[in-house]
Amino acid sequence: MPGPLDALTTAWDAMPFDEALALLPQGSRVDGTADLFEFDALFGDDPERVFVHRGNLAVSGTIAIGNGHDEGYGEDGLVYLIDGDLSVDGPLHFYNDGYYVALLVTGSVTTENLFCSSECWLLVAGSLTVSDLLVTDLYECGSLRVQGSTTTRAWLNTHGDVDIRLRGDCDHGGHVAADPAAVLLPEFLDERSGVAMNNLVAAAYADRSMTREPMR
What we know:
39% strand; single chain
């Protein structure tokens, strides 16, 4: 089982909301910050505090963020900000369900696989690099926003009407919103939804192959 975000390091400082947002690059905090972040829609109001990690954060292994249906995903209603880069030597699974944990990264995010599930809420002010597979399986308040470039071997998007904002260049090897059967091995296909998410995430945790070689 992967460790929750708040267990990765003890170096989290509780900071007032406005002070924490001021750490984001200028282009990420234009006038109308409430429209950009919409924390009042998530929590009913802006959070009183944000948990801030100063400097880059490198993790070996898997990370689970949010309040998913499995144990180990942390508490509800928390906002984290990494003032630097986040690098994960393994898969990153971000899953919110009904309650919200939000993550803001002032720098860039690098990971082997990234699963943005359900109502994940992730803002990357720098670039996003996913060496293998990016899966966006979002609905309702789910959001992925990247201010810089996005690079991934393949991107599977299971829904077309959710809040995904990739503002910079996007290199996804031509496999964006593709037929999952053209990208995934047969064991990870589901007749109803197209992607067997639970099986896919479990395979990533186990460092098993998920994609076709080559992709069709």
